[in-house]
Every structure is written in C-alpha cells, then in structure tokens.
C-alpha cells in the first residue's frame, strides 16, 4: 500500500469539499498540503529501514537523503541529535542542518514498560558499545540512546531484536509505544490486567503500513491500576481500568489528550470496553485519526483538535456507526486514586506474596553500565523481570521477602533510591540542550542539581510534589500538569545579561483533579535562582496551606 493513497484506504465518508479544508482523507483530500505529508506520500517511513541497512550504514551519514534524515528515519526511532556547543539562542535562528550532528538519538520502545534482565543487559551493552554509555529512561517508558552512528544501526537492531525489543515506530507519525501499568499482572490492588490488549495491539498495528501514515504521532495508554499510573489524561487514546456494576472489570475509554502547544486533557466517551474488545476499539479510534485527522497544519494535526471540533458525543457516534458497527456499553468513570504518587517507588507486596521494589534514578538519567548492574543485581536477588514507569522510574519484580532488604541496599549503593526524597521522586526532566535540537536550555544536569539543593535546603519536606523541567515550549516533560512546571527560555538577569531561565507554571495536576498549571504573567526565574524560588514557594505552601490543600 502506498504511504498516502490516491484514494482513501476506506471509501471517503463525506462528500469532498471544494475547499482545501484540513487535508482530511475521509473527505477526499489526498493532495499533500505540507512537506511532511509530501514525503509520507512519496514513500512509507517504514521503507527507510532497507535503505539504512543496504546504503546508509555502508556509505555513511553524508549519503542519507534529506527526506529520510529529517523525516522517515523517525519511523525507526532515529532523530539526529544537536551538534554540541550551539547555545539556546541559536535554536530558532539556525537552519535545521546547521543544528544537526552526525550522530543520532535512538529510541527503543518498551511497550508496557516490560523488560527482562536479559533485555536490560543487552540494552546496557549496546549503550556502552555504541552510545558512549548513554541510556535515559523516558516518561513514556522507553529507553533513549545518544551518540549513535548510522554505521552501527543494523547491528544494534540485530541485537535488540534477538531479545524481542525493537525501535519500530518509536518516533514518527505512527502509533508510538503503548504505555502500560508497570505493575500489570502483579499488583494486589489491580482492577484488571491490560497486558493481553497491549500485546494484541502491538501484534496487529505496530509496523502495519495501514497505520504508518497518521496525521501525526498517536499515543496510547492502557492501565488497570487504581493508581492511574500511565498519565492517561494526556494520551490520544487511553483505556483505564474500572469495575462495571453489571459487567465486571473492563476499561473506561478516553480520547484526545495531549500537551505541547494547545494542551488538552483527554475526554471520557462514557463507554466501557471489555479486555478482549480493546484492540478493536483501538483500531476504531486510530482509524478515525488516520481518516479524519487534520493534515494541513502540523500544529493542528493531533487527535485533540478533531475532538475539540466534534465533541465527545459525536466522536463516540462516529466510532460506533462507521468503525465498530455496534453500540458501546455505557460505563463508569475511574475512582479517585488513593495516593498522589503514581510511580510505584518503594517496596510493595505483590498478589502472589512476593514483592516489587520501585526505585528512582535522577530525572530518568542512567547509563549503560548502571543498567547492566541493575540487571545483575535483580538477577542476584532472584528476579528476571523489570519495568520502566511513566515517571522515569524503574521497578524490580518478583522479589522474595527475605531478599528485599539486600536488594534495596544494592540499589541504593548505585544511587538508585528506593526511599527517595520527594524531590528526587517528583522531579522529571526532558532531554534538553545536551542533545535536543529544539532545546533552548539545559535540563537533566540542572534537574539533578536542583534535587540536591532542595534536599539540602528543605530536608523535612515530605509532601508529594512534581517538578517538571522542559528545555523549550514543547511538553516532553509534561510541565503543564506538574505542581511546578518549568518551561525553558532565555531571559535577562538583574544585570541585563541574557541567561538561561524558566517560565513557571504552578498548580497543574493529573488524576481526577487534573488541570493545567497557571502561568503567572511575568513569572520567570533564572536557572541560577531556581532553588531559591522553589524553596520560597514550598516553605510558604507549608506555612499557609489549608487542610488537604495540594
Ligand atoms: Fe527537546 Fe523541548 Fe522536548 Fe525538551 S521539551 S526534549 S527541549 S523538544
């Protein structure tokens, strides 16, 4: 099937409009309206793999077709990284090729965050051999390498695939990694285990050319945990575990969440979906996005814009009438989670009597050597399974009670805290200027420094708190839904010098009280002043808060 059909993959569902409209296939608009739509029409992003294996990895970086380099390679998880030494002031003024390094970021998808110790060992070895030791845990449960040379990509794929991992559609206008509860199948309080649905969606739709040309990225989350642990509110489609009063455990269907510019929280369609129907409903929602999604402007090409125009009721109707050909069952909303922490950090009993142990690296930053050691330590304590979380944390599963203390000590010795401070636990940071071409400021090292400063200044602070740091106005670290969201930008300090700083968003949240933080006009803080500012905010919060106030 061509990447963009001359005709719709389905019969156009509406009469073609005389106007160019939003480039929706379902109303007969197949002429590409921008460069991205054109390169997708010219060739399916999935096809770039053959060129990487047969041409680019042999002839080197300079042989790569620009439309592959800055477009289709994403379909296999590859982005060029930022050339070192270019400051944030140049981000917007340089041409993309001037920012491009000859090295890549490579994202490994970890659907459901599920890893074996063997897989983690291979991830660690690849990091040390091909990625200068880099390997970050992302807030979408993925692993990200940097410093990857195109020459090494086929060998990296071979090693990953040998242990059942892949980079297929880890980036690009595709169905991205499927978030899953990191404690699926083991938690005592689980409502329903969504793992079979994750596996079936992966089998049917990932790497499937029928869904490899979407208007933009498509994010999925499935969790049956009452802790609401996959940030379902900010995914394009999410299935959230609920108990139906008549039908039993199943999933509440949410659509149209997404942050970045024009952030929107997902909306409930009021429908209950049993486990075995999740893949079909997923197919219906992603097909609506493919067929009706807006393709004219990249900034309006997420499902949230279509939902905003249609409303939840019409969306459900079209899903039922045109795609599922049946009615969905009405169902209840999820209940308020009992904890504000959703990360599973700490020691918890599994339903089989063993334990899982969640730990917090600093802002998702680990390295290949540490990942290899984590795999070793887990193995020495009788575990062969680990999970990554949507909060840049990790969990070792299946630990016998008598092994727990020793495991905790071994992890802590690697600076992986099982009982971290609120600051270590609640601070996330995106990639930032170290590697990201869109970044304006540094984030990872700054986040780590901030944790140290806050731990030293207010060691008694124990409230759950989220401090999310972004290197630019995008939302990779979810600043809009943090208690304290920090959006990187350049600003003038007191002496009139241009310095790195942050616009502050206060009071955002996920969960049943989900909402976006407020951007107080003019509230910008230089990077250097961050610890002073946050210390002031938190001390004042502690002194003046009302009962139950967050
Ligand atoms: Fe890059 Fe901006 Fe995303 Fe951070 S938020 S990783 S700087 S695009």
From TrEMBL:
Nitrite/sulphite reductase 4Fe-4S domain ranges (all copies): 171-326, 424-550
Q: Where is this region: Disordered?
A: 1-23
**Reaction(s) the record says it catalyses:** hydrogen sulfide + 6 oxidized [2Fe-2S]-[ferredoxin] + 3 H2O = sulfite + 6 reduced [2Fe-2S]-[ferredoxin] + 7 H(+)
User: Residue limits of the Nitrite/Sulfite reductase ferredoxin-like domain?
Assistant: 100-163, 348-413
For this protein, the Enzyme Commission number is: 1.8.7.1
Q: Which domain of life is it from?
A: Bacteria
- What cofactor does this chain's UniProt record say it requires? siroheme; [4Fe-4S] cluster
Keywords of the record, alphabetical order, are: 4Fe-4S, Heme, Iron, Iron-sulfur, Metal-binding, Oxidoreductase, Thioether bond
Q: Which InterPro entries match?
A: NIR_SIR_4Fe-4S, NiRdtase/SiRdtase_haem-b_fer, Nit/Sulf_reduc_fer-like_dom_sf, NO2/SO3_Rdtase_4Fe4S_dom, NO2/SO3_Rdtase_4Fe4S_sf, NO2/SO3_Rdtase_FeS/sirohaem_BS
Q: Which GO terms describe its molecular function?
A: 4 iron, 4 sulfur cluster binding; heme binding; metal ion binding; sulfite reductase (ferredoxin) activity
For this protein, the record's Pfam families field holds: NIR_SIR (PF01077), NIR_SIR_ferr (PF03460)
Record function comment: Catalyzes the reduction of sulfite to sulfide, a step in the biosynthesis of sulfur-containing amino acids and cofactors.
Q: Which family does it belong to?
A: Belongs to the nitrite and sulfite reductase 4Fe-4S domain family.
Q: Identify this protein by name.
A: assimilatory sulfite reductase (ferredoxin)
Q: What's the source species for this entry?
A: Streptomyces triticagri
